[in-house]
Amino acid sequence: MKHTFAHLLLFLMLAAPVLSAAEMRGMWIYKTDDIAASAEACDHLFDFCEKRHITDLFWQVHFAKLDTGGRELKNGALTRAFIQRAHARSLRIHALFGDPSHALRPKHAIVFASVDGILAFNRESPADAHFDGVHLDIEPHGLPQWKKADIPQKCDLLSQFVEVNHKAVARTRAADPSLVYGVDIVFWLDKTTPEGKAAYPVIYEGTTKDAAKHLLDCVDHVAIMSYRDNADGKNGIIPLVSKTIAYADTTKAKVFVGAKMANIGPKMEGFYGQTETQMMAALKLVDETYRPHPGYAGLAFFMYEAFKNMPP
Fold it and tell me: Which of 42, 126, 215, 219 is least enclosed by beta carbons within 10 angstroms?
């Protein structure tokens, strides 16, 4: 069979030495029930991750509402079996859930009940079937009222977003300190004014900072939705995440730098239409730039359903 130069380059990249234990790569996955129900789909996913040095999966979960007001993980038996298989392949699994409305204070109880649902799932499961973490995807900028909100109103929405995460972290650590807590954020949360002040200042427990810093003060990691189609340059991934990683360097938290290949949103927001070889060549610059930083966790890919269909 005839091989192109791109195929050869991709092979060499995928055959590179395995990343050290300190380096991670994440990936968002959404069609989780379909994968968990198929041994063939599981094996394909695990092989895919191994070749690309992916270590952490942000695995979408769904909940059933209980009569008590609590929330129970759906498809518990299927999920346990999947996690056991994933752990046998050295993957960490983070329960991914959230909705923009969960940023609002009246909806915080849903987040807490969902966290409790994951904690209960772990308590009722064998040790090798535990979720390794929870990963919240609550995006207040996705709320209908965000577009028409002025700066003070946006800051209020962000303050509620910070609050729900701080409280959920406290709840998680009180019940199980070993459970990793992560959250998705957009890259512009730490945007500054020309005077160097936070563009979206948030006051939490008497301290004023941008929302990204408030979150890095309490979570184990953030995953930045730093979606661009290039690594460097004025509007590239590297400058977009620089302030967040610099602040993470001063905390115990780490930062996953997100790259998008899904056909969602404007073309300049991702690598859709490029080959995997082209994308990884660009992202290599991100790795090389931030690998020396203690606050850098690694790359994170949005999302498996698109990534597996990229041309080589």
Answer: 126
